[in-house]
Amino acid sequence: MIRKSTLTVTAAAAALAFGLTACGDMSEEDTDAASENTSAEETTGGEDMESEGMTETVGENFGSGCAAVPEDGEGSFEGMADDPVATAASNNPALSTLVTAVGEADLGDTLNSAEDITVFAPANSAFEKIPEEDLNALLADQDQLTEVLTYHVVEGRQAPADLEDGTFTSLQGGEVTATGSGEDYTVNGDSAVVCGNVQTANATVYIVDTVLMPE
């Protein structure tokens, strides 16, 4: 993209020089027009590069659960890409129960300040699978809640290809395994990825349908 813009500008400059040599003199009006055309080409090239960069940052999302993610605003895929992971999750209504749990465990700053991590983020429906009494007890026990939540965080930004047959060390210390291919992935054997490859400023997120429990 950069080379294309450079070549375009160079060609315009060469044509301008040739015109000056052939005609001997160019009017001020013609010179201004040539400058405007060159500037327009440079600006267009810059916009294209910026757009391409944003596409690379956001990545390709997949899964039926992605329909629950807002189409625009801070909670959208593009909006989440601008914020660290805990902040990004707080803007996404599909992760509201997880955000509550992170707050109870006082892990927001820890997650936001981490560099290059992957989070297997339970959707609200994942927490709904836990009996209400057990979920309330978990939320009230900060130590146990911290163990469970940090088990969902692994080192490095794991791409979908890494989940095909991967074993990862969690922030909690235990191992997390993943299998699958294409757009069909499972974590620890029974937690399906319902929305994958969600990008935030410091993490890659896979929204899953079942809360992972460390051994």
Question: How is this structure best described in words?
Answer:
This protein is 47% helix and 19% strand. The protein has helices at 2-23, 28-58, 77-80, 85-90, 96-104, 108-113, 124-128, 132-140, 142-150, and strands at 117-122, 153-155, 165-169, 175-181, 184-187, 191-199, 203-208. It has a seven-stranded mixed beta sheet. Helix 1 (2-23) runs antiparallel to helix 2 (28-58). The radius of gyration is 25 Å and the shape is globular. Mean pLDDT is 81; it is low at 1-58.
Unreliable sequence segments: 1-58
How far apart are the termini? 50 Å
How much is the average pLDDT?
81
**Share in helix:** 40-55%
Following the backbone from N to C, one meets helices and strands in this order, namely HHHHHHEHHHEEEEEE
Q: Give the strand order of the largest sheet, numbering strands 1, 2, ... along the chain.
A: 2-1-7-6-5-4-3
The secondary-structure class comes to alpha+beta
Number of strands: 7
Largest sheet: 7 strands, mixed
DSSP helix count?
Answer: 9
Strand residue content: 15-25%
> Which oligomerization state do the chains in this entry correspond to?
single chain
Radius of gyration: 25 Å
How would you summarize this macromolecular structure in one to three sentences?
Helices cover 47% and strands 19% of the residues.
